[in-house]
Write a structure and sequence with these properties.
The structure is a homodimer of 495-residue chains. In chain A, 32% of the residues lie in helices and 21% in strands. Chain A contains 18 helices and 18 strands. Chains A, B: Keywords: FAD, Flavoprotein, Oxidoreductase.
Chain lengths: 495, 495
């Protein structure tokens, strides 16, 4: 059997490429339609694999020759066991909506797509516990539990295509974290195929289970480097009976922090989102027709915006709390806000959210984006955006020829800023100006270089800005324990 | 240097006892008052170590000769490094309030008490993030954050003496889990001394940080077998502005499940506890003067009781929701409840809680208790209590001579039942009648043999009732990776 040995740039050990003989074996595991390959004799045109080899931003590009689409955990196990025995590296792939290249092959790894594992296994309407295959799309699960008056504990812009398995593998944060907490709390169990092919069944649907080490936690946020998540047991909260939102225009960034304290105090348990949008992000969203804009008059002199959402059990109580909040904000001697617009119906509610959620799309329409997803103290959100802009200006990189916009938005309640640098094209010069500059700024605040997007392929070299030596050493020990051959998503998370 | 080699019942490898030469070395690390030892020349009477060698239930008894009380993580590290080099097994000890013998030596291990590490390191009132030494008492931390209008995300009966480090090491659940989720979600960072003496600093105070494997999760619930937690970073929620509670008497156990659904729907986000108390548990609590009892007339014909707590941001809204709930329950054609008593002031509020929280104390006043802390489906709570009672009756063990009461209470929202068997004395006969009987019943429901108490020394042999072979095998691999010499809390969690 002919095998090519590769010594990849990011790979320390030789791996095998997928050969015709491997395809023959995969045919004993999967039906023909679940095997996509450019390897002879299948010989699909490589364009058929484009959607698996490229990310949606057009930033990462793999050269996988073969994509497998198993339907059961046993099939995943059989595939992995073969790969382990034949040194074939694997990239597990969900909805491929990540932002750090975690689900794209670096070279010609085998792609195992979970897209065909898309069934709900069980749902208990009393406890709200949902057990679903990893390839279920987040929006489908939201729709599935809705008639039972439950919601998913996470929500994010990519909900129409991201998979629950990918959400868990990347420990996705998103828009509901402020209210429902992280996946480390709401994921109750996992089924995982380990790098040797073992199916680790920890798919408990118990809210509480203190019987030894909580191994499943290791796979939450490991980005597929320790195994392939094939099913998820997750606690879904009861649906709120009423949701409201309001967009507030603030004259100064410095008002955000006192506003957050006032809002937390007055809205208390019904506060479900507190999102920050700086003026540049707002302008771009409006320019590209994302959501409902305030009037020109209303936004005059506004330095930034805040979107507040409430979710509660009784509409009249929630509205009363929200109206009292707005009155107290407007009637104050030194108002923290210029103006606020309260949504009056479901269409307006969606439209206000579209303004916030549409920033990502507006940014991609405007140009190529360098995206940094960082945790820093709230008080420094503006300082960091401004410092980045000035740094680029000092390098002569600000303007139509290079970087056109530097903007920030994000989740205030989580201390999570999305710093976006929009440019005409991805260039090495801009890249070099941004890194390690941004990471050093984050490290100076003892922040995180990846609040929610993960490390993927993008930030492996920068891990040390957020993790100390002992932590990285222990991560490597864990990786070696689970994946001694290093076949599982190589070059991701750890270099 | 003379060392005794021991081949303990539960220990697979030879360990050393603490010798005079070890004490000499510890004196270079700690001041004299932080070393308690019966070893010559210190030669304290062994009664001085009673509180460290015995648990509060009088069920577990160790023979430690030496207790060390370090004040810094560096001192803990120095102690552990010495022990690792000299094969001295260690039992980390917090408030010693556990129920499964996890913090008591099995033989003469060295006890490292965290009681002197009791300082708050930092608190940020905007984010609510608290960083505290592991030895801080839970109630002290509650008192510390109260003036800032925050509360601790956990609350349990032992709050006056349990340590936050012990809470995290045992993944304590308690009374607020329904509302604030598990410690896997609310613990943001840990400082841990590993079994080789390394200080693993993952004491981040970021709400979100997706930079690689979340190693700290492994120590949450590992009961001190993978390292010694020396500090905790934890998210504290804002204090509710108003809390109310009500006790409801139910004619039939079958009403609990529909009642739970009705209460969840009507109280929604302000529901903070839904506690179940069976008639036997209620009667014992009343007999021993725990909390506020209902009138004899009110409880006539009641098969069980439910305590409902609300916590919200505006008193009048919360009261309106609670009163509407009670009206709808009482006005129904087939009422789910016989009666309900709403607390009218803080004293009554505390007194209703005392009835629930006082069951533990009532049980210890009544006799010796076999305590099982299990996760099973809510619908089977009564079946399991009844089946246990009948099983003991069939063995001739029910009556004044042996088991006097079999009772159940617990956290309905978490599917967590506390099954207590009260006897005149601990006997092998009762023990043999209860185990594996109880574990087999739990396994038949695919439940957990330890919902929140942990495995400790009590349930290592029963782990397989809740964990499959692959899971136990991987737990052992993790244990070996972190603690190859097996010196850290040997014989706990894993046999």
């Amino acid at each position: 059997m002919l095998r090519l040995l590769r010594q990849g740039l990011r790979w320390r050990r030789p791996y095998s490429s997928v050969a015709a003989s491997d395809i023959e074996h995969f045919k004993t595991i999967l039906p023909p339609h679940a095997i996509l390959s450019t390897v002879s004799p299948s010989s699909l045109p490589s364009s058929e694999l484009d959607q698996y080899n490229n990310d949606w931003m057009g930033k990462y590009r793999g050269r996988a020759t073969t994509v497998l689409k198993p339907k059961t955990a046993q099939q995943v196990s059989d595939i992995v066991r073969w790969c382990a025995g034949h040194d074939i590296p694997i990239v597990p792939q969900g909805g491929n909506t990540g932002l750090v290249g975690g689900s794209i092959p670096l070279q010609d790894e085998l792609v195992v797509s979970l897209a065909n594992m898309n069934s709900v296994r069980s749902f208990d309407p009393v406890s709200g516990i949902l057990v679903a295959d990893a390839g279920c799309i987040l929006q489908s699960l939201t729709d599935y539990v809705a008639p039972h008056n439950h919601i998913m504990p996470i929500d994010l812009g990519a909900k129409g295509s991201c998979h629950i398995g990918g959400n868990v593998a990347t420990n996705a944060g998103g828009l509901r974290l402020l209210r429902y907490g992280s996946l480390h709390g709401s994921v109750l169990g996992l089924e995982v195929v380990l790098p040797d092919g073992t199916i680790l069944d920890q798919l408990t649907s118990l809210r509480k289970d203190n019987t030894g080490y909580d191994l499943k936690q290791l796979f939450i946020g490991a980005e597929g480097t320790l195994g392939i998540i094939t099913a998820v047991s997750i606690l879904t909260p009861p649906s709120p009976q009423a949701s409201n939102n309001v967009i507030l225009a603030l004259p100064h960034f410095d008002n955000v922090q006192p506003l957050y304290r006032a809002v937390k105090r007055q809205l208390s348990e019904i506060l479900s989102a507190f999102e920050f949008i700086d003026r540049t992000a707002y302008n771009l969203a409006v320019k590209h027709g994302q959501g409902r804009a305030l009037s020109d008059e209303d936004v005059e002199g506004a330095e930034c915006f805040v979107l507040v959402e409430t979710s509660g059990g009784r509409r009249e109580h929630d509205e009363e709390k929200l109206e009292d909040l707005l009155s107290s904000l407007m009637d104050s001697d030194e108002p923290l806000i210029n103006t606020g617009v309260l949504s009056q119906n479901p269409a307006q509610f969606s439209s206000l959210w579209a303004l916030r959620e549409g920033i990502t799309e507006a940014v991609s329409k405007e140009g190529k984006a360098y995206k940094y997803d960082i945790s820093i103290p709230l008080a420094s959100f503006k300082t960091v955006v401004d410092a980045t802009r000035e740094h680029l200006r000092s390098k002569g990189l600000l303007g139509e020829h290079a970087v056109t916009h530097v903007l920030g938005y994000g989740h205030v309640g989580d201390g999570n800023l999305h710093l976006n640098i929009v440019a005409a094209a991805y260039t090495q010069e801009i890249q070099d100006a941004l890194e390690p500059f941004v990471y050093e700024v984050v490290a100076s605040y003892r922040g995180s270089i990846s609040a929610e997007h993960g490390i993927g392929a993008m930030k492996t070299h920068a891990l040390h800005y957020s993790k100390n030596d002992a932590s990285i050493e222990w991560m490597k020990k864990i990786k070696t324990l689970f994946d001694p051959k290093g076949i599982m998503n190589p070059g991701k998370v750890l270099e």
